[in-house]
Amino acid sequence: MKGKLGLVKPLERFLQVFFLCWFLTLLFGWIERELYIPGGMYPFFLKVFRFYDFTEFQDKFTYFHQATFFQIPGFYFCYPAPVAIVLDGFMQFGYYALSAFLVFCFITFIGAGFVLGRAMCHRGMGMAQTVILIGSSMLLSYPFWFLVDRANIEMVNWLLVALGVACYWNKKWYLAATLFGVAISFKMFPFVFLGLLFSARKYWAIAWSIVICAVTTYASTWFMGPTYRIASEGIAKGMEYFRVQYALQVHKYEIGFDHSLFALIKELTHRQYAHAYMMHPQLPDLYYLPWLYGYMAVAAAAGLILYFWRIRTLPRTNQILALTVASIMLPPVSGDYTLIHLYIPWGALVLVTISLKNAQKVRGLTFSFICMAFLMAPESSAVIYGTRFAGQLKAIVLLILFVVSIIYPFEEPASVEDDVLSPTRAVAQ
Prior knowledge:
Blueprint: H1 9-34, H2 41-46, H3 52-55, H4 81-91, H5 97-122, H6 127-139, H7 142-150, H8 154-169, H9 173-186, H10 194-199, H11 203-224, H12 228-247, H13 261-279, H14 283-309, H15 316-329, H16 343-355, H17 365-375, H18 390-407, H19 423-428
């Protein structure tokens, strides 16, 4: 059954909620502007394209391959070594380094939308409906525009994971393992996608992925120089700086853009923290460190139990959705640009929905689209009584989406079992 836009009900409901969230956010922004509320959404839209996550390191990269890279004043380099190699590649464009990175972001995102749109048309969706759905969800994509606003390197990791998932679906196991291995070397939490290979019983592919991660990390650290030891120690200091300054502290501004479950815990306990910090300024590391250890232990145990008990037996679309949500919800710090990873299971669900005869009757499917519509809209830019709260609200929605993904199987029609995530095949045809 199709709605007024010619879309099946779950997809039309997605757009309705998506547009409603945008409208409410803009309404809050207008109210904030009229009432002169500081720090609200309105200034955010006036200051788009700040690019800080990229430009803060540009001076450092003039000393790349030197010990000075890790010693000059300012922010530590808080990423693993493979990220430094990619950033250095963009820095080779000199004055146009930032422009080169932004062009890469736009080409990658638009290209993915084009490939997905072709796959949708191949499965019977009309061109007009495809343009409406893809155009609206990508043009108004809060995660993408937030990523561009920060010029964050997450776009590279998203490309690696997205290609890895597509290769997994096409049963190109070792190519998927290679892409996952490189993604894990960038950030640890994409390791959850090895669960896709485990459920397919591709154990040697998992071992290969681990080897790729180790080799990529070692080679990148060695290439950073001037020696492996100096580079590894510098990277370790940067990661420790990030842990203490971000994972173990509450930043009133940033936490509203942090949808990690651990950020939700910090927000719920920050008043006690604030009082203690006034008495003992050195306390952030001491106060939240037990919380962090406990959180990571519980998250790891719960994740393993849920995976072996439920996730690995679910349809592939459910596995992709559950593992993607886990990868962006469980890290101790998870900025809103990581929400762009939701477009991977979103694309899979869109293609499955198109292929189903009675998609509106599939339990949990419409609700999953409603959750993703909320997560892809810019509520994080709104402020109420000086508090930016949407990061924690998004964490709750992510948790709900995760629960839905493991409770309600989204069975794939037999006719599309082998090509739901084969955009290259769709393009070729």
